[in-house]
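Q: Is it fine to ask for two folds in a single conversation?
A: Yes, each is treated on its own. Send the first.
Q: Here.
A: Result:
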Amino acid sequence: MKQANSSSCANESSPSRSPQRPLRVLIVDDEKDTVLTLMALVRSDGHESRGAANAAEVWRCVDDFDPDVVLLDIGLPDRSGYEVARELRQRFGEERPKLIAVTGWNKGSDRILAQIAGFDHHVGKPYDPSALLALIAGLAPSGEKR
């Protein structure tokens, strides 16, 4: 795994335990504590994780880390998570990482906008950590290893 630049795409070391197929999970949120908490949670379930604080860092992380899953906040300081999701969908098509909105934007209209933008799932804050981990684990193709 490549080391991240000091200013972006925070890197985490190897996972603490191995699921059937560890995933690479990118967490994007402007709240540093949220990123660190989600990175630790994902890592505790055996996956690799990296974090980004804004939309501009997403592209470096995607190119460097090649995530399987992106946990993406909608309310980012430089661009909306909706825009980032649309751009990921345009760039990668069906080969894009699975996109999960993890956000405080929980109205019905927010969920519809997330679906239109290309999110695969929408998880409202506060979230149930076990349910989020189950959702992530369900995204791994069975029997496949990286």
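Q: Second one now.
A: Result:
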Amino acid sequence: MKLEEAILRFGREKRNGPASRARRRVVFTNGCFDLLHPGHVRGLEQARQMGDVLLVGLNSDASVRQLKGPTRPVIPEAERAEILSALESVDAVVIFDDRTPREMITGLLPDVLVKGGDWPGDQIVGREEVEAAGGRVVSVPVVPGYSTSAILERIREGARASRAES
């Protein structure tokens, strides 16, 4: 789904306008979601419980490279989007190219903006816009023991050990 389609489909005016019969609480979260792991799944499930619709902003491949370096992402954006879309908790996935989802958040103005607890509250992109529009910002706890970077490091260690044994 493109950004414009997501905003048209889930935009605050449309979901809360006079034509809407039932108010739909839209929750938004975002991330790279490279090497999806149980920490991601649990966080998305928690986010979905906060509303009626969960929209996930997914960093594009170019955006991930800007944030994580030239060896990332491991999984291409179309595949990451397909995997996320298959999760029961996720209603829609929108890929964005910027370093942050500020433009998407500003256009959508979700009722709830969710980020992992590893982000300090004052650094959550879109916080000001969402709160100014009457929405709320929620930090969900990070699930201990799960991290894409840690998974990649274990893979590298295994490869180094395998080479050393040869």
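Q: Anything structural to flag on that second result?
A: Two points. The first helix runs from residue 3 to 10. Strands lie at 26-31, 53-59, 92-96, 112-116, 136-140.
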